[in-house]
Amino acid sequence: MVEDYRTHPNLAKIKIVLVETSHPGNIGAVARAMKNMGLSQLVLVNPKEFPSQVASVRASGAADVLNDAQVVASLDDAIADCQVVVGASARMRKVSWPQLDVRQTAQLAMETVSADAQAQVAILFGREDSGLSNAEMDKCHYLAHIPTNPTYSSLNIAAAVQVFVYEFLMATDIKSVHQAEGYRHQLASAEQLEGFYDHLYQALQDIAFLDPSKNARFMRRMRRLFNRSQLDVKEIDILRGILTAAQRQSNQLKTLTQDRD
Amino acid sequence: MVEDYRTHPNLAKIKIVLVETSHPGNIGAVARAMKNMGLSQLVLVNPKEFPSQVASVRASGAADVLNDAQVVASLDDAIADCQVVVGASARMRKVSWPQLDVRQTAQLAMETVSADAQAQVAILFGREDSGLSNAEMDKCHYLAHIPTNPTYSSLNIAAAVQVFVYEFLMATDIKSVHQAEGYRHQLASAEQLEGFYDHLYQALQDIAFLDPSKNARFMRRMRRLFNRSQLDVKEIDILRGILTAAQRQSNQLKTLTQDRD
């Protein structure tokens, strides 16, 4: 984390994650846009070419952000310690996913990081040509789109990041509504959420609820529902406790049924 | 004026004026940013190199904006037909000038062009290295600055234009087109929610999870969790389906256990 320039502490909790960026010039321009708006955490998932002289030139005075960029091999590594994961994408009318515009995203992010001092928020930007894959979008709690001219909506990736980081800076005075309520535990990380979803998936099979042929769509629906509510670690514990109780009966039932055979 | 793509009529009344831009790549990136946000009027005052292949490449799908750009020899020619002239500049604390941020500028511009069908607004962007001269700022009715990290406030010119044109689009009613969400079913009524909570309470007892002495506090926690996510009617159906599946096993287990006694 870059600490050598003055910035709002909440901006330091926002990660900009670039997935398989092709052009190093774009990575440099993203670093510059980030530093201009006071952000410092840049994560590169499998960049095609990095480090790169072209990136450094485009970064201009943001060499520190570029030098401190974290390079990782998988998206999971990039977001494991993040409580809210947002995928930036062109608006898709047919995808049923919670969609936010940039201003709403910035508000959500600032509410999240001010509610929980440990919380971090990741904003994912996909490949220049093909964006994020479906599997990558499945890791997202929200999709965020930039309002655009409907007939020409494809922004350069650095321009897209510029709009997001500008809105983040504009939103820095937003406080969490939960802060006053003071009832929440630490928000669950993406890793803890995945653990819950795996457990749920298994438990739904154990209690003979889930039709495996419909799993992908069904689990996506469950993710949407629980991601919307921003589970905290205590709630994850409770929900998994309920699943375990249901599974315990399911095992007992299985044992008894086998006994009878 | 470019008319071949759908845009908000008020955006067509905003001129982006680039004064003595050095790098043709920046001109191309500005054209792209403008078209992305539905603007069409680009005016170049004494560009160093234009037309340019580099500009065309960076403009990507915004060749029409670039081709229709007006090249003029003086700033006066660029702004002669404009009612409001705003100079984009780094924030200058010692200059006594009406200063706006980008959002205020967009609001002012949209108010101006919707109040008067003939009105046009010019936003001036200076040279990459030295900005606008004092004589050029004297032609401005307002100065506008982009809020930034105070220790690194120098945006690339195309990035600066991107932030302005984004705010212009956000200030039109065009975004209302995007507002229809469409992915949610009808939100559950309070009565449907109560039905779900009753069902949950019973099922948690059936699967031997719930300690009755802690019911009130526990159920309050469950209510907070699910109320936060604003369940829709379809989600209520699914959640109750899961509860029913768990209860079915619980009943089978009870029957089998009684058989053995």
TrEMBL record, chains A, B:
Residue ranges constituting the tRNA/rRNA methyltransferase SpoU type domain according to the UniProt record: 14-166
Assigned EC number: 2.1.1.200
Pfam families xref list: SpoU_methylase (PF00588)
Main localization (coarse): cytoplasm
Subunit structure: Homodimer.
InterPro entries for the chain: Alpha/beta_knot_MTases (IPR029028), RNA_MeTrfase_TrmJ/LasT (IPR004384), SpoU_MeTrfase (IPR001537), tRNA_m1G_MTases_N (IPR029026)
Species of origin: Hydrogenovibrio thermophilus
Keyword Phosphoprotein appears in the UniProt entry: no
One GO cellular component term noted in the UniProt record for this chain: cytosol
Name of the protein in question: tRNA (cytidine/uridine-2'-O-)-methyltransferase TrmJ
Places the protein is found: Cytoplasm
Key words, A-Z: Cytoplasm, Methyltransferase, S-adenosyl-L-methionine, Transferase, tRNA processing
Catalytically driven reaction(s): uridine(32) in tRNA + S-adenosyl-L-methionine = 2'-O-methyluridine(32) in tRNA + S-adenosyl-L-homocysteine + H(+); cytidine(32) in tRNA + S-adenosyl-L-methionine = 2'-O-methylcytidine(32) in tRNA + S-adenosyl-L-homocysteine + H(+)
